[in-house]
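FORM 7B: Structural annotation worksheet

SECTION A. Query
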Amino acid sequence: MVRGEYSWFDAKYLLHDEHICIISKEALDLERLPELPQIHYKEPKIKAASSVPSRFSETIQAWWHERYNAPPTITMQVDAYETCKEMVKHGLGYSIVPGVFVSPKDGPHTVDLVRKSGEPIKRNTWMLYRESLLELAIVDRFVHFMKTEHAS
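SECTION B. Predicted structure
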């Protein structure tokens, strides 16, 4: 199971997709976003095996550069989405997070990221597997179960 887009030479199945969204304590004027304090999620060094930006970060950067000429005003960097949410709840800024980490009971104002073309920006969760391994009964049953549980 992987989140995001990865090159894969064999079979894959989309399990889930989720919006990427801006969360804030109150509604924001998106035109003013570059000057507002951002609580930036950055992968922990332990998880980030290299200094190459994650696909999630690249997606956010592409969206940002499509809309703004100025960089974001990053006032804090944190390594957990839950920390981002708590900082936002206390009015310390806005953050950009996967929608799976936000629920209505959390209370933040949310805005889904959308490309200028109108296409929503989402992060996919894929099940990657080798077609040849479906010959193994346990693998075949697991793949069938996952497809049944995550049918579109």
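SECTION C. Observations
Strands lie at 2-3, 11-24, 37-41, 73-78, 95-98, 109-112, 122-129. The chain has a mean pLDDT of 88.

SECTION D. Sign-off
Analyst initials: ____
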